[in-house]
Amino acid sequence: MRTRSFCFSVAASLALLVTAPASATPNFPPAIQSTLQLNAAPPCTLCHLTDSGGKGTVVTPFGRLMMQRGLVEEDETALKTALMAVEAEGKDSDGDGVGDIAELRAGTDPNTPPGGEASIPAYGCGAQVSPGRALPNAGLVLLAAAVTIGLRRRARSTGRANSK
Question: So which residues are the signal peptide here (predicted)?
């Protein structure tokens, strides 16, 4: 029983440590390129903070607008519908007077006004961790698992000593 419990604790700890790398929906950039007949596929930063993206990590004004228009992960039909809605509405995420779809067709970023930088929230639901700032890491999870195992062993050995 003790070995089974230990193995379960180790397996649970490893499961927390091993995660698949996050990535943006890989079919979306080429689908945007095809739908809007662009010269090149847009970068993942059109909707995400980085090119590695990450499901559930849409943070740009254009990306949030697309989600409000029905964009769903991995669904090219929803992507095309959202693109057409944004175009029909003439939406302008960066407020520069040029519609988002027109900017994409011109090869510019609809999140960034001319000469400006993309607006990524510094706080709130869309906030991102600054580069170089550490998030709670796997080492903390491993330490917590080790402490839990140690406490369980101690409780068992104390229980055995009291029963003798």
Answer: 1-24
